DNA sequence: AAATCGCGCAACCGCAGATGT
DNA sequence: AACATCTGCGGTTGCGCGATT
């Protein structure tokens, strides 16, 4: 029953990733696509465990990630969603396409939790709709669907302290998420790597696993993780894969948040980014699994959530909660 | 100017679900 | 159907940096 650690101690590097490692990882994924993480360390020569590689990619290197500077809207959304979903960061992250669950989790723990505890009363810090201890994490969507009544009851309780919460919408969110929208969180790694389109040369080959280290060491530019991230941003952007998140404006500025030092770096657009005919399209990378049809509700949800003064106070939470359980238009 | 403290973030750990054999 | 492996998720920790004393 005891599962061996994903990576044995010996020979496995831990701690912060270096830009060189980042580039190696990026290069590999660029060629083969994400997935099959088990093979990544072996095939790249990285002295990292597969888990670490995956984490690094999903939380940091993946294109389309916005870092830092949470907007007020995002903040609100997180608070609301946390109140409904509890600490299901991945689920919450599915509503913030450019944010990672780790990022949201950190932001919650460092900013919002404290904020709510001190200022807004501690009610919100104790989410009402936490799943019961026995619940199975990966199936929260289904649970939300089947146990919607339970959630409604919990919400009713929660509404007392959280008077600015929009219950019905959140309920709908949950319902929307349930059918599977939220599953998209987990970077569609459905073994997407296997079918890598034999990415011939282009940019990717320039930074093949063997190259980057030397390049980074000798090149005139400074290699930073931000560069890599930004580079990927542009890359994915060119692919038209991002489509911008509906409710969260300004995706492009993402990696550039405050990191002016990185601007000196010029990848020349050629260093890595496969401007034309790039090898792997990361359409499924940027919080992908939410198809456009299902993203529609998102903007609606967000506008609904953020439009506090206009709508919410017109509705009595109790009556809303008493509405028919599953009559959601989604 | 130096030391201490607190905060924020990146990364790790372990569990559990999903998938493949 | 059972087992093994892989992947995803949430909680926690450790380090670096800035603020304060």
TrEMBL record:
Annotated spans, Disordered: 115-141, 186-213, 235-264
Q: Where is it located?
A: Nucleus
Q: Which UniProt keywords apply?
A: DNA-binding, Nucleus, Repeat, Transcription, Transcription regulation
Bias (Low complexity): 196-213
Annotated PANTHER family: MYB FAMILY TRANSCRIPTION FACTOR (PTHR10641), OS07G0629000 PROTEIN (PTHR10641:SF1121)
Query: What is the species of this protein?
Result: Miscanthus lutarioriparius
GO annotations of cellular component type: nucleus
> What name goes with this protein?
Uncharacterized protein
